[in-house]
Sequence to fold (551 residues):
Amino acid sequence: MATVKKLLINAIDPEEYRVALIEDGLLEEFYIETTAKEQIRGNIYKGVVAHVEPAFQAAFIDYGGEKNGFLQADEIHSDYFQQAVESGGSDGKHPLPIQKMVNRGQEILVQVTKEETGKKGVALTTYLSLAGNFLVLTPGEPQVGISRKIEAEEERTRLKEIMAQLKIPEGIGCIVRTSGNGKTKRELAKNLENLLRLWEEIRNRAIEQPAPSLIYKEIDLAIRSVRDHFSPDIQEVLIDNKEIFKQVLDFLKIINPKYGSRVKLYKETRPIFSKHQIENQIETIFQNRVNLKSGGQIVIDPTEALVAVDVNSGRSVKERQIEETAYKTNLEAAEEIARQLRLRDLGGLIVIDFIDMKESKHRNEVQRVLKNHLKRDKARTTLGRISKFGILELSRQRIRPPIQFGTYYTCPTCQGKGQVRSVETLALSYLRKIWLGISKGTVSSVKGILPVEVAHYLLNRKREDLLRLESRHEVTIHLEGHPHILPEEGRLEFRKKESSETVDSQPESRENNLEKTEALPTQAAPNYWQSAENYLLSEAQKAPLPRQSKP
Fold:
């Protein structure tokens, strides 16, 4: 039975574009772009060298973004330092140090290769490339190549012969993309002509525009997805936005005119992704657990250093033999892991903990299945072997930011850690800060705005400790609980003796701290919102404690 492949483009909301490639109803590729975080990979900028860092052998480039871009020494084309080479700066065996390649304030043409992630700025290169429908133009790299995914030797030979006949200017290279498979000389020549014209426009703009400035912007997600993913085996391209539909149709008529009829405008009232029942599949991309049909489970945990993937058997215990159960679950997991890496675009070092298998033939087969399914990935991957502990390591190229980029933000409560300190631990932490702040003997009073639960704990469970501190150091401690303060955003204010000067124990983490917090609507104030002194006065008959009178 033939596989049914469809490319769905959801562009009805201008704030968010989504593209899905499905095969027999299963989500195989998913892309999302939002206006809040536009992707700039592939853009070309005229930048300025802001700083050269010899220790890293890298330069930081001001290209116009919020953060400077990162340019490694091996990403700098020799045209920028040819004069230094010719004057004897390099012996050919050892590369020049970066401080001899570029200088601070120097203008430089760069292209974004990796999006900004976390605290890291974008990665840049001076080796530019322009992707067309069938070809990739590489100015400054005069080599002609064929995509590795075109495996038929006869077709590779045919394409090499065609490329040898095309008029490619000196100093410019060209690579035939996978989509160039089966294309005629005329089609390839036309694509080359368009790319050369584009390159000439980029060169002229780079000369005319000041630095930093955007010189070339990569095409939008809808057109890019058709360019990169459309093939004759895709039965339909469905688009729910009339304007985008016209753009895609015009584009497809250029690259594959005979398939223009496959582009259709989706007009139904039911949302396009809901119609094809893939919304639930998309939701799983944002979850760390993926269920397997056998009852097993994959747990995906991205960290700053690596991505950890754990395979669990779960309820997959139908087989009598433990080895057979582990083998079958791992086979299913290998296929799903390859798919999830694509969907989530998880890059860098990836460590997979498979269920232990004693037989080497089972481990080899799981490796083979994983390797075969990784072939569908456009990103470069390097695969290791399953160890006797069931651990497999692989590295994957980052093509785009993780799927959460632009759609999720860091939790303000836990700051992305996934955990918050317990009320007891946090309360004791504030108590120690109070003790430290008044121990110097220069403080007359302490005022604290704390989370409600923390204030409740201190004023009820630690009231004796607060009393002792007040008595011993002759200070007044006033604590308030507020429901709008996050656990880590409490504030302590220390007022010095015989002075109106106050000192904060920690800087404000939000604008709406002390002054704005007091202006916010509060709940009916319970006892634990009172100061320690007032609270104990109201409790004096129940638990009388010796106090030092205040003047």
